[in-house]
Amino acid sequence: MNTDNKIWGCLLHLSFNMWEEYISPHRPFRGFRPDLELSQSLWDDAIDAMAKEGMNMVVIDLGDAVKYDSHPEIAINNAWSTSRLREEIKRIRSLGMEAIPKLNFSAGHDAWLGEYSKMVSTEEYYTVCSDLIREVCDLFDTPRFFHLGMDEESAGHQSYYNYVVVRKNDVWWGDFYFLVGEVEKNGSRAWIWPDYMLWNEPEQFFKKMPKSVVQSNWYYGEKLNPEDKYVKEYIDLEKLEYDQIPTGSYHDYNTGSIGSTVEFSKKYIDDSRLLGFLQTFWRPTIEENRDRIIGGIELLGKAKQEYYK
Questions:
Q1: Fewer CB in a 10 Å sphere around the end CB: N or C, the chain?
Q2: What values do phi and psi take at 257, rounded to 5?
Q3: Which domain covers residue 153, as residue numbers?
Q4: pTM for this model (two decimals)
Q5: What is the DSSP string of 58-127?
Q6: Total number of domains in the chain
């Protein structure tokens, strides 16, 4: 078992259906797919690589890639059964890592919800979200964290969609509090990417965001300047004593992103509130992305080594 007191985690996509059907021309790998796109060999190798590199957490983007007992109608073709998911969680734990669920409830990243993505803020939507959170918490045996996503809910981020949904002000907060409440009711701690509200409405954010919610601000550049608007939010979150898990990425040629994020965070975030780090790849888990996914894991491994020097 990895005994580090910091989280060293990677986000691995079981589902990649966060985006609506209309695919962005500069990101053709996005968009809704009705069939599970997954290389089992890459998935297995990625999990093994995480353990080898000293990772202690795997965040699994579940979406519609699981045939939930509560809402099987959400599942795409060839989705994993709940028993298959339990087997994978068991394997991850046997390698000394924590398995953490992610369901992205941002209205800009919820294509996986199927017809319910067009029912945001309705009673039926709340019922479905409650059912899914409860079932996932049970499948993961009451996970320590539950990642709710909540990023990039803006018209700009949905500019290539045919159906655009953006919640604002009290409507967003009302739905957010509901989701956090469901997570906490089931014994887990909510974890989000705060960019939508933090970057655009910081006064609202710091007035209304509970300290109980773990914050994963993100910046994917290779050089983190504390004067940069998006980088500065790490410092602002620290000033108000929010727990943080900064997020880096290897989705492009940005090999220095996670290392720079780790170095910056160690300098500017108090050790007691720096819970750890999350590496992302933003590619489906299929063979054509093998080098990026395995490479991203290795980059986090190197960043971890530097952190403890």
A1: C
A2: -60, -55
A3: 7-307
A4: 0.97
A5: EEEE-TTSEE-SS-GGGPPBTPEEHHHHHHHHHHHHHTT-EEEEE----TTS-GGGGGGGGSTTSHHHHH
A6: 1
